[in-house]
Amino acid sequence: MSIQVPFLNLRAINAQYQKELEKAAQRVIQSGWYLCGAELESFEAEFAAYCQTQYCVGVANGLDALTLTLQAWLEMGKLSKGDEVLVPANTYIASIMAISKNGLIPILVEPNPETFNIDVNMMAAHLTKRVKAVMVVHLYGQMSDMEAICAFSKENQLLVIEDAAQSHGATINGKKAGSFGEAAGFSFYPGKNLGALGDAGAITTDDAELAEVLRALRNYGSHERYKNLYLGSNSRLDEIQAAFLKVKLTYLDDEIASRRSIAQRYSTKINNPLVVLPKVENEESHVWHLFVVQLEHRNALQRHLQEHGVQCLIHYPIAPHHQEAYSELKGLKLPVSEALHNTVLSLPIDPTMSDSQVELVVKAVNSFTL
Amino acid sequence: MSIQVPFLNLRAINAQYQKELEKAAQRVIQSGWYLCGAELESFEAEFAAYCQTQYCVGVANGLDALTLTLQAWLEMGKLSKGDEVLVPANTYIASIMAISKNGLIPILVEPNPETFNIDVNMMAAHLTKRVKAVMVVHLYGQMSDMEAICAFSKENQLLVIEDAAQSHGATINGKKAGSFGEAAGFSFYPGKNLGALGDAGAITTDDAELAEVLRALRNYGSHERYKNLYLGSNSRLDEIQAAFLKVKLTYLDDEIASRRSIAQRYSTKINNPLVVLPKVENEESHVWHLFVVQLEHRNALQRHLQEHGVQCLIHYPIAPHHQEAYSELKGLKLPVSEALHNTVLSLPIDPTMSDSQVELVVKAVNSFTL
Ligand SMILES: Cc1ncc(COP(=O)(O)O)c(/C=N/[C@@H]2[C@@H](O)[C@@H](OP(=O)(O)OP(=O)(O)OC[C@H]3O[C@@H](n4cc(C)c(=O)[nH]c4=O)C[C@@H]3O)O[C@H](C)[C@H]2O)c1O
Ligand SMILES: Cc1ncc(COP(=O)(O)O)c(/C=N/[C@@H]2[C@@H](O)[C@@H](OP(=O)(O)OP(=O)(O)OC[C@H]3O[C@@H](n4cc(C)c(=O)[nH]c4=O)C[C@@H]3O)O[C@H](C)[C@H]2O)c1O
Predict the structure, then answer these.
(1) Percent residues over pLDDT 70 in chain B
(2) What CDD domains does the record point to (chains A, B) (predicted)?
(3) How many other CB atoms are found less than 10 A from the CB of residue A307?
(4) What's the pLDDT at B281?
């Protein structure tokens, strides 16, 4: 059957803002200034304000946002090579790569199978003197238990970095994702809730020194033209992408509201006993980047939905510790994560979905039998 | 005095193609596909054809083009951590960083002070069993002596990577920059002869396996969605930048012709005995990314020109081994390089310069006295 409900209709999402996006592009093309200029500066200010942080540093993508933050802490003497960093075992592999690429050691921590997020009790179980930081991932758009995690980290003098790639705009008691840790990495990959029209990312923080080091690290390690202090990277957020992001940021809260409305309809109307729906502790803490159900017969449901024109994805089919890139971790036993990787399925969720498309997904899921 | 001749008038350069660039942007915005799609694929094919190579792999920038190529050779077992790589001592620091960032050791080799490029005789002086590769940089737009370098490298089983960031379109006997080494890294930084409207870069090569590994490395180490073979990076060339580059590639040869014409006028008309003009062995081997003169009183000339409304830059004021990022190299004695860093000055060279602007520069340089 042809696709009735695409997993994510990015073309339709951006078509809503077509005129504004074209104007933004035109403005940047004409300006003659394409990197680290006024567009980036104003986007950084707007995104920092949105996230309730003092600083925002734009970089080339979400992986770099995490990688450069950890490198900055190494340069600042807050971390040393070989230090251990707690990170959830079930996340997009980029979170873990950011740790390894800096010569730090990722310690994979099992998640809570109901929230998909890092289990604070399990964090305690992995605590040794070698652990110096924790990277929490607000997976699928739902915030981790930041109050418990921050208390635990403070008690044990751990740095906290939030991987907020999937959770722009989520809040706990009115406090935004990206404002809890010492720093947070965001991705603006096109498919994210706040997506550029190409690769982009950012770090939010209240730490002025960290922001300053990051501004050098993204620019060949240079604060000042032709002076290089660090072995840096080239990781800049293009002016044209900053201009696009400024447009899209103004619609982010509306898009989150649409996502929440779809999630609510899924949650109330999907009643197939084979399918476990996602649990949400707190409405405002979830921005529904993904709507992820669990079931033993995940592959069969994906085929069934495909036959009904509904496109699904799996986030993610292979656990990081089973990837070839992490052969040194393959001996780990992480039963909760491993089970999740075998049972999760992401239903389409997209602010431009029509009511009838939502109905179609609900019906297709409910009609699934073994 | 106000600026009469800017160093590089990127706004004017891109204004020539305004309509086409806006159309390209519009096409990509509307497409709904922003990464690793049809625009990139066709740009890669066109740029490979332009460079006379089998493959082109687009990446996020020039530094990554070099860094990922060396990483690919590490992954392929062609290099090992700790191997030494010969590289010119006077280059933009990114060339050297690409080596260090991979755990390889840069061996800084003095240039020929007349061509600014790596001195083949000095390469031989640094040859030990630990040296496994050479990175040549075609500085300022002029090709290195590739016949001698390739012969030397073949004899000594060294891999050759060309840093062609400044030399798109230069040729030796009709053979293009980027087609001599096992691989070449290009930058499409906006100010380059072929410049995007943001960051972009590429690798050219005839090695199918290398191209394949690079395609994974730029994409989180993944050839196939959700399967990660390497600790890769996120280093993609955005669709919108690929679309811009396709427009600009069609004008590259015209722009090179304009640059050559300006260089020729500078070379014939500047006759200030204090100023040493760049030496060119072969017209076609120089694409005049920069027009670099040498003189003892470089700073005084820069001020003098500034007073006459002529904007100059210095490429580069500080030698890489004197940068704080390379404190471990600060003991090196590299007199040729050090002298160059104190004596070079880049005059404006830009395909949109008017005849009267060229005259103004010539007059201003010729009127300089001590
Ligand atoms: C927790 C966490 N930390 C760090 C990161 C790293 O951030 P990054 O470096 O910015 O990628 C991620 C990234 N995370 C994502 C990851 O979740 C995964 O996301 P995905 O949903 O599998 O993405 P996808 O399938 O490529 O796109 C989703 C849909 O959108 C459609 N699409 C896509 C594109 C690009 C398009 O142009 N047009 C389209 O129509 C195709 C699909 O239907 O893969 C991406 C490459 C990563 O950026 C993360 O989740
Ligand atoms: C040999 C070699 N290897 C690897 C690399 C690394 O490649 P990369 O990672 O792609 O940078 C380089 C990069 N090389 C260049 C390097 O040569 C240097 O170039 P530069 O001439 O000093 O550049 P600039 O002063 O920023 O810009 C030149 C002029 O253009 C104006 N301009 C600039 C921009 C960006 C704009 O939007 N609008 C403008 O009007 C301002 C200036 O008048 O610094 C850059 C950041 C590097 O990309 C290299 O030379």
Answers:
(1) 100
(2) AHBA_syn
(3) 10
(4) 81
